[in-house]
Amino acid sequence: MLTARNVTKNYSNLQVLRGVDISVSKGEIVTIVGSSGAGKSTLLHILGTLDSPSGGDISINGVQTSTLQGRRLADFRNRHIGFIFQFHHLLPEFNALENVSIPGYIAGAKKSAVKERAEYLLETLGLKDRMDHRPKELSGGEQQRVAVARALINSPAVIMADEPTGNLDSRNARELHQLFLQLRDQFNQTFIIVTHNEELATLSDRQLVMKDGKIVS
Ligand code: ADP
Ligand code: ADP
């Protein structure tokens, strides 16, 4: 589903990624672990097309992402990649249902179909009674689950998550882990997750350990 071959990234003199190879299958949860500064976030951003590599090839669902630019790149990203970050980045003036729906509207899907799917996802994630709440009216765990629903709205090939539990207490972190496993089992959803959370890394299908810009195990 996703393959990366010999991906490198340099910032002027600094070689942040030194030839990374990855292949991820559909329905797999892959975690990327390693000490701070190893290059994990840089790699995730490049796999997610938020940043471009200095060298190497990445393909997602058979599309060579480096060949995409501008509008086509933004469109590809919105349709095929879901993002979850440490902070939820929900839009404060919109309610949960609207926040989840926005990427669907941007993708040009039919309004009624987007609303129906957003409602279904929020219900699946245990937020049936929270759909018309704005982010500040939700608990931290609920906010992050809304962000998960938003990431799922366009049925992305892969969800990229950067420290998704970094801002949650241990109970909410554990609930989010269970949710990732549920989404894998229920929707065959693929995840690539950068995490310091050992429990999450242990639960994943595969752990990639990064050190000094390379995957070492
Ligand atoms: P990790 O996520 O493993 O902590 P990062 O990918 O954030 O590591 O960073 C890897 C290295 O790249 C660090 O040395 C960091 O300072 C450097 N780096 C990251 N982004 C930039 C940037 N935009 N410009 C220069 N150096 C950067
Ligand atoms: P937690 O125990 O996870 O920290 P909170 O105590 O923040 O949760 O919230 C408990 C419940 O109250 C949540 O389900 C949330 O939706 C609801 N809630 C919290 N703040 C507000 C608010 N300002 N308006 C409406 N509902 C709220």
UniProtKB/TrEMBL annotation:
Transmembrane region positions? none
Leader sequence range is none
Supply the Gene3D superfamilies for this chain: P-loop containing nucleotide triphosphate hydrolases
Question: What are this entry's molecular-function GO terms?
Answer: ATP binding; ATP hydrolysis activity; transmembrane transporter activity
Q: What would be one Gene Ontology cellular-component term for the protein?
A: plasma membrane
Which SUPFAM superfamilies does the annotation name?
P-loop containing nucleoside triphosphate hydrolases
Which GO BP annotation is one of this protein's? Answer: lipoprotein localization to outer membrane
Give the source's domain of life in one word: Bacteria
Q: Which Pfam families match?
A: ABC_tran
Question: Which key words are in the record?
Answer: ATP-binding, Cell membrane, Membrane, Nucleotide-binding, Translocase, Transport
Residue span, ABC transporter domain: 2-216
- The protein's name is ABC transporter ATP-binding protein
Source organism phylogeny: Bacteria, Pseudomonadati, Bacteroidota, Chitinophagia, Chitinophagales
